[in-house]
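re: that complex we talked abt at group meeting.

here r the seqs, copy pasted straight from the sheet so there may be weird spacing, ignore it
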Amino acid sequence: MVPLTQTGFRLLPGALDAEAQASLLTEVLRRVEVAPLYRPMTPGGKPMSVEMTNFGPLGWVTDALGYRYQPTHPVTGAPWPDIPAALLKLWDQVAGATAPPDACLVNLYRDGARMGLHQDRDEADFSFPVLSVSLGDTAVFRIGGVNRRDPTTSVRLASGDVCILTGDARLAHHGIDRVLAGSSRLTPGGGRINLTLRRASPGPG
Ligand code: MD6
Ligand code: FE
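got the structure back, here u go
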């Protein structure tokens, strides 16, 4: 374990209380009915272990063509559902950004799903932060530096925790090593849902 050197990594433990978590989950599940979770393929042709969908004008997708943001669900062809109001409000309150988010990626972790070390760098303007909300089972989050080989440290993300990558941590490598199955009873069927809010398109002005 090494100390975090990025000052731009912010963890807000328990930012959402139990009631806020339950009501956000309801809003998420309602939208997942119309924008179903699907298993994306990496550009290299391997299925990811997480299931994904998106909310908002733009959604992050990966397939044989690469990584990108697009306005429609790759399976249904329909526009993504709107971003839940509670998430827009959270962004307003804690992100310190000058424009609202236009993309909310939804990741569902079940059955040993994990996410390899990556950078979030498909957005137009890295001066906007990325804000994530965790619901359900606790995850072991790993975060390092801008260089892939920089030392990393582990942080647990529990249900209701909010994590923000901004400033010198905006392009830090990070990933999910594992999810502690059964650590929460929030999600029906178990597992973990992570909601990541971004500004994908250039900000106004
Ligand atoms: C996850 N999170 O928590 C994956 N990205 O399941 C991310 O990839 C992430 O938590 C950017 C900012 C915060 C994050
Ligand atoms: Fe990420």
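couple things i noticed - The longest helix spans residues 18-34. Residues 97 and 190 are 33 Å apart (CA to CA).
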